[in-house]
Amino acid sequence: MRKIISFMHISLDGFVAGPNGEMDWIKIDDELFDHVEKRINKGDTALYGRVTFDMMENYWPTAAEKPNASKHDINHSKWYKDVHKIVLSKTLADADFANTKIISENLKDSINEIRQGTGEDILLFGSPSATHSLMGHNLIDGYWLFVNPVILGTGIPLFKEMKEKTKLKLISTQQFTSGVTELNYIVDRQ
Question: Into how many domains does the chain fold?
Answer without folding.
Answer: 1
